[in-house]
Amino acid sequence: MxxxxxxxxxxxLELLRNETDERHPISTVEIERTLRERWGLEAYRITIQKDxxxxxxxxxxxxxxxxxxxxxxxxxxxxxxxxxxxxIDAVESSKFITQKKSRVLTEKLTTLASxxxxxxxxxxxSIADRVKAGNExxxxxxxxLNDAINLKRKVRFLYFEYDGRKHRQLKNGGEPYTxxxxxxxxxxxxxxxxxxxxxxxxxxxxxxxxxxxVPTILPDKAVPKPKQYSIGDFAEKAFQLFDSEHAxxxxxxxxxxxxxxxxxxxxxxxxxxxxxxxxxxxAEVSVSPTFFAWVFEFGGKIKIxxxxxxxxxxxxxVKKAME
Length: 323
Fold this sequence. Notes:
five-stranded antiparallel beta sheet; SH3 type barrels; four-stranded antiparallel beta sheet; single chain; 14 strands; elongated
């Protein structure tokens, strides 16, 4: 019957996709036996050859190893094995994805390889000891934010932080924030939403995993982006997207810090030779605790030259830490 022929071709494709690769081809006899035993479909050598030829004509990359008993395997896959390993490692390492969701995603990614290669991927899964987010609603939160960005609508949500006893405490006196979301961005192992905050009257950032429940998409049109808004420029100035007052800060650095400076500020930063062992540059940054922490971690190899207000704020922070 024609329906049996169509079903047979689909099952052959399923068999090739799930159970074959370059090191594990399958013979005509094995295909014939599997079709009969697993799905109750009758097939013969000639019909199998014709079905595979039709699949090749449809664009599937099926390789044939010709011998007394032809063997076949699917060579063209959406992802190569190293690519899948890279994606799985990104999922495992990401702090904003919960441990439960990480397991689900990695299992789904392994299905994109053959069952023989999937075994190699599963042996690499190790997420139990990694710090992961605890907000299981994060997928739905991000989905709502993404919809609001596409619709150019405002959202309303509750936002929390942890107190000294590890209890969630709602910020803003328990009142919701209203935001015109512009961008979702991944920075410092966490996802942030960046947009115009009605409460703050400026562009603000919120960590997605700290949003208490799925945001409500409002009928109100979002506040248009400022003309000069660029998420790249904003993220460059706001250390770990901790945004505060911006200032033009001049920094003096040892030459060994050039890679570090370029990693953060990009190769477009204009540096000047200070002496044989140092260079300096000026950049607009968000003068925040995260910026000061970034300067401090290099043990004096990066120094703040100005403005005086930023130098004084840094010195006061260090003094308090020493106390």
